[in-house]
Amino acid sequence: xxxxxxxxxxxxxxxxxxxxxxxxxxxxxxxxxxxxxxxxxxxxxxxxxxxxxxxxxxxxxxxxxxxxxxxxxxxxxxxxxxxxxxxxxxxxxxxxxxxxxxxxxxxxxxxxxxxxxxxxxxxxxxxxxxxxxxxxxxxxxxxxxxxxxxxxxxxxxxxxxxxxxxxxxxxxxxxxxxxxxxxxxxxxxxxxxxxxxxxxxxxxxxxxxxxxxxxxxxxxxxxxxxxxxxxxxxxxxxxxxxxxxxxxxxxxxxxxxxxxxxxxxxxxxxxxxxxxxxxxxxxxxxxxxxxxxxxxxxxxxxxxxxxxxxxxxxxxxxxxxxxxxxxxxxxxxxxxxxxxxxxxxxxxxxxxxxxxxxxxxxxxxxxxxxxxxxxxxxxxxxxxxxxxxxxxxxxxxxxxxxxxxxxxxxxxxxxxxxxxxxxxxxxxxxxxxxxxxxxxxxxxxxxxxxxxxxxxxxxxxxxxxxxxxxxxxxxxxxxxxxxxxxxxxxxxxxxxxxxxxxxxxxxxxxxxxxxxxxxxxxxxxxxxxxxxxxxxxxxxxxxxxxxxxxxxxxxxxxxxxxxxxxxxxxxxxxxxxxxxxxxxxxxxxxxxxxxxxxxxxxxxxxxxxxxxxxxxxxxxxxxxxxxxxxxxxxxxxxxxxxxxxxxxxxxxxxxxxxxxxxxxxxxxxxxxxxxxxxx
Length: 679
Prior knowledge:
mainly beta, Immunoglobulin-like, five-stranded antiparallel sheet, 7 helices
């Protein structure tokens, strides 16, 4: 790279002159939406992780601007242009907010000062003003660290970032400039140039490497070179040329470093979150994956890369690259198909590239979007959406060209009971994004994005005060988007599985209200479950004799499969036998078959004997149902049950005598037989 290429207003190549385009490799189509324009050389954009959803934009001329509620505020958050040397690779280069910024108001800036020429690297702390959260206090400055950068006007690095796991401040410094790192600063552990530094801004008393006065920061005890008299203790990693932009993956805490190359290769380095630091990323032994040619050409050279950590991949100047701009792994919600991809760019080309993990340390790189911009940085908002800085004066948000139409697959819970307290509704489906909203009967509810297949909404008690049903849909905003098809959520009277639309709803409420049954479980009735012969005994006796009826103790001498050893239904079964309503399911030896389902044929006999007495005999059948042979064992009983209006059969002139009676059907039969009041 030409030493002044990065952060120079170089014209993008012809490849970059396109509009929105669909990438190859199966990645989603994206576009860049303007967030702020007419800026002065924006080189960094970030958020304060304070819940305000503001964006902070660093202008290299020495100011920090705020985008609030979609508008660029006219008053800068901070203006230190009188302290800054600008421009080319110098200026105010980044800002990082303390992890406890919401409580302490501290933020940190990285700039090139104008005290000496060509300007030294300065890291300073400032505070937000007491009276206005959108304006900092310029008098609150405290210098943490000044790193001498003599002779050259390039390779200043410039990124500050707080580590998500340790809370320490990381700073990426360039190698001191010129070309080829003549002093070999990047490999020299006794200088802080060409390094990734790590310091504790909540401590104090450290003496900066090579200096004599203590500074308002501490050295983390776990830094890799602590105790080494021949190394700067601030150093976390070394062997970098100009790590102008790096980032931490908010999902994994891995450190991704974009290192600007010399004449031939750009590179992307990765430090896993579990690393103890101390990596040597190779410069100037290596340039990318190749031995660096000190002659300044790209001809093969010899070296010993032992002890160096090679990049994940490199980009070659032969393809037009000149200054790689490190980015982020996408962890937002607006573009589900991009989640996990690492986005990066080049200051000369202006194109956005996406690298996806193929496993085994292999990555596939895809041109995501060609742009006409001179990309200087990426940034994240509080939701993880990505932004791109154009050195020409704009900041843009990465958006999908079209947000998908969402679809609702299922609801959890699928039903509630009227009068319940408010609850969290989980909506499962597809096409959800961070701005998806759950709609309840057409009205938006407070919604939380969980993933592209799950949303959660807060449903207040007032929404389920009355029985009925609610229409649940989800809505995605434009571009594209729209409302999904709706699914109904039942708001039931008593049981979660008995909606008002169920054919037996009133009859189930009748047997519940009469105390015949309390259901099959907690707030469940199990309407489609078969009725067992054991349950039938209790249902018949309670329906005919009242909810308060209690059968006499059982003996265990009636049926071989009803031992009266604590079974819930055993007394009811023996009582039903004693009343002559049933003789069991087998005569010799006598059995009742309590777990067997009651058939529709058996049901006719049991109901009519309960209603008319054990000696009752129905009239002779006439052949009313096509599937009931007349005469037959149950035919007279079946027809009489129909004559009394208890049943009209199972449909199509059939009675289905061998089918089990469901608990829903049982409620209808019993209610009609003993004339229970309907609600």
